[in-house]
Amino acid sequence: MPDARDAEIYPRYCFHLSPTVNSWCWLRISDIETLKRHTEFEGENFFFHSNLPIKWVRITGLVVAVCDADNSRLRILTIDDSSGKCIDIVIKRQTLMEKTDSKLLEGKPSRAAWAHDPHGSIDVGHVVDVKGGLSIFRGTRQIEVEKATVVKGTAQEVILWQKRSTFRRDILDTPWVLSRRDIRQCRKEAESAESTSLAQKEKNRKSRKEHDKLAAQVTTNKTQKASLSARAGSASTRSKIAPKPQAVETRKRLVEMLRDGSTEGKYSALGL
């Protein structure tokens, strides 16, 4: 087995070349406890066996304890694989369907009704085949379950042990070494991908900006059109009710003539 102290930890952009990064890594629970962590990769939950990045694991063992609270979204099973260590596996229940009001239960605690749990039948005494992602909770390593099945018998369990041994021999105990050329090629690909991503983001930003500008212009045009329409309607209304200048002038002259008496006797037939 390669010495972990001598193994080079490659940059993140080289991880896709690792035989473990996107694989279910067969491990014993005691192996999980010895995996190393590196600060720059903790945000992605990467653990390391020598320099091999590991995120997804597969274990086989006996269920020795179950923590199953009705009002909890989590179901926690403790697994023992006879390697000298135990580990908790965490099953996240499916979407909460409904929650009964405790008042309707005559003082009993409220209980949550959950969707069907495909892992609900697993119990103490079952041997299980577990696949999941490694994580840490309060300083303790655990597995967040993606899939867990009950092993049907000893024959199947032996087959799983053989697969675990083969994985250790062919992958974990084989040094992962990249040439300088491989690393340079990975760096170029990463830089190219980043450049493409930045260009696409800039293109999307400009597209959104242009879209927002066009939308604002359309809104402005609609507002101006509505304003002009309102003004035109108001002017039309005023023109209908306003008296004509000539009629106003004629009326004024008649009023003045009546006041001056200059029309006396001229319109007697009209009663004026």
TrEMBL record:
Polar residues: bias regions: 217-227
GO annotation, cellular component aspect: chromosome, telomeric region
Gene3D superfamilies the UniProt entry points to: Nucleic acid-binding proteins
Compartment(s) of residence: Chromosome, Telomere
Region (Disordered), start-end ranges: 191-250
Main location: nucleus
Superkingdom classification of source: Eukaryota
Residue span(s) of domain CST complex subunit Stn1 N-terminal: 37-96
Keyword tags: Chromosome, Telomere
Signal peptide: none
Protein name: Telomere length regulation Stn1
Taxonomic source organism: Moelleriella libera RCEF 2490
